[in-house]
Description:
The chain is of the alpha+beta class. Helix content is 24%, strand content 30%.
Amino acid sequence: MKNYKMLIEYDGSRYYGWQRQPDHDTIQGKLENVLSLMCQEQVEVIGAGRTDAGVHARGMAASVKMNTEFSEAEICAYLNRYLPDDIAVKEIREASPRFHARYNAVGKTYCYTCYDGEVKSVFDRKYVTRLEERPDIAKMQQAAEILKGEHDFRNFCVNPRMKKSTVRYVDRIEIARRGSYITFTLHGNGFLQNMVRIMVGTLLEVGCGRMTCDQIKAVLEAKDRQKAGSTAPAQGLCLMGVDY
């Protein structure tokens, strides 16, 4: 049995997230179905993380152990032949026996995209969040500096019963405007459930004048989810890459 690393991209619009669910279409479920058919036995695919329902990925990494005589190129071709058109395997290669896509990950990059143009964005509508207001980029950049670094992000997590450590290190938050599009690019050593979306929602509150930078500091210290901003919609979020 060999261990493989896969690089996957997908449009998450019609899926209930990454994690396998018995009664819903998920990314993990689709990959496992195709590989299990190829190997003629049950195969488990381990992702670097668990993207939420409606979230997209350009660089999701996964590991899978399989018994197969197919070459790496043949496995990749088989997957892309039988997977739905909104999921693609960009690369597959043999990894060390101990490689684990989730446990060995040391960093992730996410990009969140908003659109605040006067005319709705027809062709990008599934991949951007449309804003009714025009946020102040400079104010959001100032607030983002407060969120950078190592903090307890418990109040930026949707799961109130999180038992593991909620301390994370975020070393990059870049906010840029290009025409009517605003992008939030975040990199850190890991992110809690909904953490990126809550961070973006909170920064947008600052940009629209409903929160101040001082309140951002208070949110981090309060460790109370209700103190942070709303959770930004899923369709604007994309996992760009995983570091190992």
